[in-house]
Amino acid sequence: MSISKLFQQELRQHYLFRRLPDKSFVSILAQSNLTSLKRNEMLFEKGDVAGRFFLVRHGQVMLYQTSMEGNEKVVDIIGPGQTFAEAVMFMEGNRYPVNAKATCSTELFYFDNKLFMEQLRHSNELCFALMADMSTRLKGLLTEISELTIYNAKHRLISYLLGQINDKRDHPTIRLTATKSMIASRLSITPETFSRIISKLKKDGLITIDDENITLIQPEALKEIIGETFKHTKNTCR
Questions:
Q1: Assigned CATH class of 151-229
Q2: Closest to 77 in 3D by CA, of 94, 96, 64, 58
Q3: Please, where in the chain does CATH 2.60.120.10 lie?
Q4: pLDDT by residue (tens digit) across 171-185?
Q5: Helix (H) or strand (E) holding 89
Q6: Per CATH, which fold does 5-141 belong to?
Q7: 1, 4, 184, 222: which has the highest count of C-beta atoms within 10 A?
Q8: Neighbours of 103 (CB within 10 A)
């Protein structure tokens, strides 16, 4: 069953598909579909054969590793409009390197890797678009690695909060779309440390908290705390 025409225009807006010739786009959709996951339902496990990549339409998918002790380390949190697992098409062994599960009721599109690779061989534009996106992601990951190895927990959390700003208001409000424990894991800090830093920022009058919403009362002061290392780019922990 292929994706209905209802969703084709929606998919056409994504950078992976908007440069495709109509014939190639139709060919890919013929072997694609929309599927649903329940909260905590697994999409794939580390080591599974990677025959597909995905685009989240609604909901959220968590990519994570599991330690020998059974602890989960969040690798990334994928939200609506974002793709994941497309880079696996170019990896030796063709296996998913992480686990993936829905953190809430989720809808996502899936696409056949082999068929998409065939289209890449016929479209230089599509190749360059994919390379540009992967380059951007790589730069983001390198920045995160630097923060994890060089900066302390407070620096990483403030950098994350600033990276979630979507508007230019003096006191921007961000909504935590993932649980605090998931965000803490993504930033390699404990949930207790996360809560302690948030409480201290609130006490200092730098933020206010209303359920899952955090308002940055003094964003410029937060930037000063972490210094010139902050750049306003969207954090990959979404």
A1: mainly alpha
A2: 64
A3: 5-141
A4: 899 998 888 899 998
A5: none
A6: Jelly Rolls (2.60.120)
A7: 184
A8: 21
